[in-house]
């Protein structure tokens, strides 16, 4: 009998059918195979088949298992005899996926499938050697316990362990004698396939679930689901924002192996008032979205992308993050599990293949079952049916948990926003569903302030710097304290600015004690000044101090007078000493306690040893980071591509970024520059350098070098 | 999105907008399961605690009702996790029951074997349990009832107590309402307590807690033990009971340092209860002297530790705690609740004020700038002496005297912590001083003279922090205190909150040295009152010296 080869069969398929195959098994076209033999080889390769198996539901897998039991080639009728007639459409499906192929009217399995399904398909043992015969009628006379023994092995696994085969009990020895069991080694017996098939009544499977089980759960109303989801969306976005701000204030240092340490994670969780799993999730997404990065000095810091991100509306922010979550293979759920102790968020060990597929299938299932909060067991059962090879209870649980955090779901059910997102629609309707931002706060006499709803960005930034958050939710409760006011002053606010802001924003009068608190703190703030200097000069003769200060020869030491008898400088003490001696003074060195030291000690470097970094240690930025970097660049470019005379407004951060960029490019630019009266004029300049908040640039109008105060630059654009 | 008065926060606090049209309705609805945490002018804060939710269960509310209320009044979407948590917490209540057993006395019963197993494995719980009678019943050592309940609460499996209370020896007590009548909130408080069995009633100073006690006694109709802070307070209780109830003088006994009377109604001081002789508490037997039907703890926030321990032993008696300020700097509020019983009634101070039962008060912090010499001395003082130093400076004393003179003719109280400071003040002003060593007779005489207006200015040490009833005092000047104690501040304000005959506003001055720890402590002290809606005004001492 001539047999058709797999490649030949493929070759004979129609173009449509090959296309369909490629759609179902996309890995077969990357790269495009050179010919049908190559295609057949690839379709038969284990990795490709494993992927294909992962996409099969339970019925298809059961059918494949049944095929493994049959001799090749097999006919449809053989298969039906072993399983069920209702399965015949699945045969076409497997054919289409090129997991079986046609040989005339019959079918053959693609070679590697048998290896992947295993030696004991459906829990069936080896065949009875052909020289042995079994008389099933004998079963009626089986001794006590023998039938029970067979029933134990009947649905697999077909092997059983015995204490000692040489001294079997009466039941076992009867079964062995009559070949109902075969001995494998001195301690193992096996139930032969023929016996099992007889006991199973000629069918392979105990039960065949032909259709997916129905998803069970608590019914919910879509309106309530959406309400809950929107609450989740807004808290999630707030977490992102707050965490990035928190890291900007107190950047954690990444572990040597990369990633966020346990203690820092706990700090984040405490700061946000959420559990550590959730904090790890938020941190991961910020990282994936390129909103934070592990900086070259190992500090974890928000990027400039974060500033851009903040300027977008909430829907856009959410859309961006959720899309990344759907695609990412990083699994923050692994963090904190006892079996994966050393896995840290932002670390290198979070990738797991197949996660995006699981997320998609979970969401698709929810999409097909709206208004239901699925019960855990039920959703596991359904997903185990629809893709048994991919099933992972933890991954499903995490996906559901994360979907709820993100606000894709609310009260467990899929929200309309999530639904639209999965369907790929542009307008998700989140922006209009979110509670309207409020533009005021209520200050109470116990020095707390309440924002009775989400605050506008500007307000929340300002109040975030001068007060601590005490409670979060639909509203935010802030508390003013000495420390929080001090932080505001550190951020460059003045006491009067803070008071004006509060008066303007508070719907209720600002309590007098709060005003006093602000006055008190701002009065004391900055009274004590701290700076750095490398060495000092002191002398009881004030005249000598004055003389040194005005000595032209010593100008390069840049001496500063702190008090009548004290000068300081950034120059190293040894150098100062030498210079002073050269200029004819008679300085002597003293040590920390003021005792004269006659000779300088042996010199050593002051900084800690810092051997050069090994290149491979540096983590290469992930794709996501690169993409968003490019995106950010483009956005920056767009912002600068305006006509001269029409300089766009840029924020201080953007201005600074752009200036650095143009200095590097040595480009001529137009800037809007505010004068002391607040009028804005445009200047065309060549920027040269930036230092101390001042831009040094050559002004085209005057042709002279001129300095520009950066806060007064209202916008920057390229000269076209 | 509904526009409700309530904002449910994810940290389980509830913010109630009091200016909202539905706020009253909402307040009544949530009061049954949430605890009032603070009540400043605009937004009141309530908190959902397991204890509060379990009390609600005990009072017959189920989780569904609680969730319904939250959803109904909430302005924004309620966090789902919180709702799940509420349902979960409430379902834990009642799985364990304490019941009276005809043979074994007290037993712990549960139909949920797993829960019973879990709690019996608890390290703290195991020693309190005896023999396991069957799968669902375990014998409890009778003396351990209180401790067991407390330990189970900590494990998160509160036991519903069906073992009931002993009735105690019967004694007829009734209120005599001639010329006065019990106020609505007092009645509600007494009833709230009675239905709950045991618990704490929180009412502002001057709102008539004694009447609540008397009303509770009238409901109990049984012999009563009343524990109070000191002898003066004991006498006040006695006078009040004689005036308000059918009790006669020979029915009320005083059990204090000087007298040891045990009568159907006995008033004892905390001090005598905790007196030790040769290391033993000599007077704790009083708890067993009579079959008490009711025990009242006045100023329960001061409950001393030995009485704490004893209270755990007498769980089968009804216990009523009375306080204005259940804040303890040692964080023992929780212990009070679990030993005396949960909060049965609580009402914001400002609400009673609005009803006219306590006087409105104007709180003023007077900031005094120390002289340069004082500042220098302060800066170099040892840290542990710093507060004493800045609190007792001469500059502060001068301001206090100036204030007292300014209010000459009004009833003024000057309150302080440090005796030498008070001595100097009393001497300079030429007014009497009451301190710890002042004999009881003398104290009573001075207080009586003050009440009649014979004396208009008194200097008192912390002996007058509590329970001293001085209805006509309108001005209090605080010169120093027990560091940052919030309840002391509130209690001192309480001394001047009795409504005045002419409806005058009381004024509370706190003299504080600027830029010192005095100011930091003052801030902490003021928190409780600020949270009750008392807005402090700050004025500079110069405004008093040169008006």
Automatic annotation (TrEMBL), chain A:
<protein>
    <submittedName>
        <fullName>Unannotated protein</fullName>
    </submittedName>
</protein>
<dbReference type="Pfam" id="PF13625">
    <property type="entry name" value="Helicase_C_3"/>
</dbReference>
<dbReference type="InterPro" id="IPR032830">
    <property type="entry name" value="XPB/Ssl2_N"/>
</dbReference>
<feature type="domain" description="Helicase XPB/Ssl2 N-terminal">
    <location>
        <begin position="441"/>
        <end position="563"/>
    </location>
</feature>
From TrEMBL, chain B:
<feature type="domain" description="Helicase ATP-binding">
    <location>
        <begin position="190"/>
        <end position="344"/>
    </location>
</feature>
<dbReference type="InterPro" id="IPR001650">
    <property type="entry name" value="Helicase_C-like"/>
</dbReference>
<keyword id="KW-0067">ATP-binding</keyword>
<dbReference type="GO" id="GO:0003677">
    <property type="term" value="F:DNA binding"/>
</dbReference>
<dbReference type="InterPro" id="IPR050615">
    <property type="entry name" value="ATP-dep_DNA_Helicase"/>
</dbReference>
<dbReference type="InterPro" id="IPR014001">
    <property type="entry name" value="Helicase_ATP-bd"/>
</dbReference>
<dbReference type="Pfam" id="PF13625">
    <property type="entry name" value="Helicase_C_3"/>
</dbReference>
<dbReference type="Pfam" id="PF04851">
    <property type="entry name" value="ResIII"/>
</dbReference>
<dbReference type="InterPro" id="IPR032830">
    <property type="entry name" value="XPB/Ssl2_N"/>
</dbReference>
<dbReference type="InterPro" id="IPR006935">
    <property type="entry name" value="Helicase/UvrB_N"/>
</dbReference>
<keyword id="KW-0547">Nucleotide-binding</keyword>
<dbReference type="GO" id="GO:0016787">
    <property type="term" value="F:hydrolase activity"/>
</dbReference>
<protein>
    <recommendedName>
        <fullName>DNA 3'-5' helicase</fullName>
        <ecNumber>5.6.2.4</ecNumber>
    </recommendedName>
</protein>
<dbReference type="GO" id="GO:0005524">
    <property type="term" value="F:ATP binding"/>
</dbReference>
<keyword id="KW-0378">Hydrolase</keyword>
<dbReference type="GO" id="GO:0043138">
    <property type="term" value="F:3'-5' DNA helicase activity"/>
</dbReference>
<dbReference type="Pfam" id="PF16203">
    <property type="entry name" value="ERCC3_RAD25_C"/>
</dbReference>
<keyword id="KW-0413">Isomerase</keyword>
<comment type="similarity">
    <text>Belongs to the helicase family. RAD25/XPB subfamily.</text>
</comment>
<dbReference type="InterPro" id="IPR032438">
    <property type="entry name" value="ERCC3_RAD25_C"/>
</dbReference>
<feature type="domain" description="Helicase C-terminal">
    <location>
        <begin position="393"/>
        <end position="544"/>
    </location>
</feature>
<keyword id="KW-0347">Helicase</keyword>
């Amino acid at each position: 009998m001539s047999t058709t080869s797999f490649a030949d069969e493929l070759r004979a398929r129609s173009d449509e059918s090959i296309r369909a195959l490629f759609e179902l098994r996309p890995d077969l076209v990357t790269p495009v195979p050179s010919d049908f033999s190559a295609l057949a080889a690839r379709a038969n390769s284990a990795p490709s088949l494993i992927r294909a198996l992962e996409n099969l539901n339970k019925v298809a897998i059961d059918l494949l298992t049944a095929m493994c039991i049959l001799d090749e080639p097999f006919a449809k009728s053989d298969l039906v005899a072993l399983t069920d007639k209702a399965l015949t459409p699945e045969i076409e499906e497997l054919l289409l996926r090129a997991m079986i192929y046609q040989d005339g009217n019959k079918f053959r399995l693609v070679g590697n499938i048998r290896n992947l399904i295993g030696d004991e398909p459906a829990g069936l043992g080896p065949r009875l050697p052909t020289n042995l015969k079994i008389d099933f009628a004998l079963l009626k006379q089986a001794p006590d316990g023998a039938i029970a023994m067979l029933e134990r092995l009947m649905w697999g696994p077909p092997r059983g362990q015995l204490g000692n085969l040489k001294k079997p009990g009466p039941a076992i020895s009867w079964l062995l004698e009559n070949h109902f069991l075969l001995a494998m080694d001195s301690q193992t017996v096996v139930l032969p396939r023929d016996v099992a098939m007889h006991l199973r009544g000629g069918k392979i499977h105990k039960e065949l679930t032909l259709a997916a089980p129905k998803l069970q759960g608590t019914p919910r109303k879509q309106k309530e689901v959406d309400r809950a989801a929107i609450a989740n969306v807004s808290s999630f976005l707030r977490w992102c924002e707050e965490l990035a701000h928190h890291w900007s204030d107190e950047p954690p240092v990444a572990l040597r192996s990369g990633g966020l340490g346990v203690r820092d994670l706990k700090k984040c969780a405490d700061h946000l008032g959420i559990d550590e799993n959730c904090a790890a999730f938020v941190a991961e997404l910020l990282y994936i979205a390129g909103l934070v990065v592990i900086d070259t000095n190992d500090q974890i810091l928000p990027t400039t992308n974060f500033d851009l991100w903040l300027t977008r509306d909430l829907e856009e922010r959410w859309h961006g993050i959720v899309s990344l979550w759907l695609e990412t293979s990083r699994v923050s759920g692994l963090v904190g599990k006892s079996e994966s102790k050393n896995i840290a968020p932002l670390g290198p060990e979070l990738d797991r293949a197949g996660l995006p597929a699981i997320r998609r299938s979970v969401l698709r299932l929810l999409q097909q079952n709206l208004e239901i909060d699925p019960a855990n067991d039920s959703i596991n059962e359904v997903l185990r049916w629809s893709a048994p090879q991919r099933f992972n209870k933890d991954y499903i649980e995490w996906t559901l948990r994360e979907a709820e955090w993100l606000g894709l779901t609310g009260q467990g059910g899929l929200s309309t926003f999530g639904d639209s997102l999965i369907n790929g629609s542009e307008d998700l309707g989140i922006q209009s569903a979110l509670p309207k931002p409020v533009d005021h706060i209520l200050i109470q006499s116990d020095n707390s302030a309440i924002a009775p709803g989400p605050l506008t960005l500007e307000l929340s930034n300002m109040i975030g710097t001068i007060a601590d958050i005490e409670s979060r939710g639909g509203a935010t409760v802030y508390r003013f304290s000495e420390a929080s006011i001090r932080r505001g002053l550190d951020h460059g606010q003045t006491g009067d600015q803070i008071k004006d802001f509060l008066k303007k924003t508070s719907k209720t009068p600002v309590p007098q004690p709060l005003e006093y608190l602000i006055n008190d703190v701002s009065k004391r703030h900055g009274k004590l000044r701290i700076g750095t200097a490398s060495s000092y000069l002191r002398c009881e003769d004030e005249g000598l101090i004055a003389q040194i200060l005005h000595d032209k020869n010593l100008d390069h030491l840049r001496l500063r007078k702190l008090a009548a008898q004290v000068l300081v400088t950034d120059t190293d003490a040894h150098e100062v000493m030498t210079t002073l001696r050269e200029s004819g003074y008679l300085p002597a060195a003293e040590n920390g306690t003021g005792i004269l030291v006659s000779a300088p000690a042996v010199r050593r470097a002051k900084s800690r040893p810092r051997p050069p970094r090994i290149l491979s240690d540096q983590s290469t930025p992930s794709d996501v980071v690169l993409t968003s970097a490019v995106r950010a660049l483009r956005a920056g470019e767009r912002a600068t591509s305006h006509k001269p005379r029409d300089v766009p407004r840029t924020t201080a951060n953007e201005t600074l970024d752009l200036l650095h960029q143009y200095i590097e490019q040595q480009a001529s630019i137009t800037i809007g520059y505010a004068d002391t009266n607040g009028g804005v004029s445009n200047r065309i300049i060549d920027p040269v350098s930036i230092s101390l908040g001042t831009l040094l640039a050559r002004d085209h109008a005057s042709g002279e070098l001129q300095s520009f105060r950066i806060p007064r630059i209202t916008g920057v654009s390229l000269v076209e | 999105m509904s526009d409700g008065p309530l904002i449910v926060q994810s940290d389980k606090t509830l913010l109630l907008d009091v200016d909202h049209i539905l706020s009253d309705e909402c307040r009544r609805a949530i009061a049954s399961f949430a605890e009032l945490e603070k009540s400043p002018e605009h937004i009141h804060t309530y908190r959902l605690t397991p204890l509060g939710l379990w009390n609600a269960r005990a009072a017959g509310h189920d989780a569904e009702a609680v969730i319904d209320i939250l959803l109904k009044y909430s302005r924004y979407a309620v966090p789902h996790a919180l709702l799940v948590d509420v349902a979960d917490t409430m379902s834990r209540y009642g799985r364990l029951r304490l019941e009276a057993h005809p043979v074994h006395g007290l037993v712990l019963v549960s139909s949920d074997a797993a829960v019973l197993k879990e709690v019996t494995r608890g390290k703290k719980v195991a020693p309190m349990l005896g023999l396991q009678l069957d799968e669902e019943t375990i014998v409890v050592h009778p003396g351990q009832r209180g401790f067991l309940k407390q330990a189970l609460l900590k494990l998160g499996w509160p036991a519903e107590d069906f073992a009931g209370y002993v009735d105690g020896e019967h004694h007829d007590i009734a209120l005599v309402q001639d010329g006065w009548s019990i106020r609505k909130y007092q009645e509600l408080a007494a009833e709230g307590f009675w239905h709950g069995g045991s618990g704490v009633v929180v009412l502002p100073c001057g709102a008539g807690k004694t009447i609540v006690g008397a009303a509770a006694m009238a409901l109990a109709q049984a012999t009563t033990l009343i524990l109070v802070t000191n002898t003066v307070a004991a006498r006040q209780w006695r006078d009040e009971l004689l005036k308000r109830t059918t009790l006669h003088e020979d029915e009320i006994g005083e059990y204090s340092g000087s007298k040891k009377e045990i009568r159907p109604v006995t008033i004892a001081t905390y001090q005598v209860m905790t007196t030790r002789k040769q290391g033993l508490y000599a007077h704790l037997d009083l708890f067993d002297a009579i079959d008490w039907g009711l025990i009242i703890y006045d100023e329960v926030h001061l409950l001393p530790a030995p009485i704490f321990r004893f209270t755990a032993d007498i769980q089968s008696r009804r216990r009523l705690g009375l306080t204005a300020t259940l804040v303890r700097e040692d964080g023992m509020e929780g212990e009070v609740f679990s030993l005396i019983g949960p909060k049965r009634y609580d009402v914001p101070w400002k609400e009673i004020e609005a009803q006219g039962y306590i006087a409105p008060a104007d709180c003023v912090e007077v900031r005094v700038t120390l002289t340069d010499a004082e500042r220098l001395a302060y800066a170099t003082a040892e840290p542990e002496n710093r507060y004493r130093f800045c609190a007792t400076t001469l500059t502060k004393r001068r301001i206090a005297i100036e204030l007292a003179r300014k209010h000459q003719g009004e009833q003024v109280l000057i309150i302080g912590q440090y005796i030498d400071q008070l001595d100097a003040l009393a001497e300079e002003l030429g007014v009497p001083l009451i301190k710890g060593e002042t004999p009881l007779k003398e104290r009573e005489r001075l207080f009586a003279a003050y009440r009649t207006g014979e004396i208009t200015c008194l200097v008192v040490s912390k002996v007058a922090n509590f329970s001293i009833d001085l209805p006509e005092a309108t001005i209090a000047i605080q010169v120093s205190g027990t560091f940052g104690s919030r309840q002391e501040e509130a209690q001192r304000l309480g001394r001047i909150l009795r409504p005045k005959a002419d409806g005058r506003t009381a004024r509370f001055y706190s003299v504080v040295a600027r830029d010192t720890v005095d100011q930091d402590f003052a801030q902490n002290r003021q928190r409780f009152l600020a949270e009750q809606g008392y807005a402090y005004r700050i004025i500079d001492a110069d405004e008093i010296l040169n008006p």
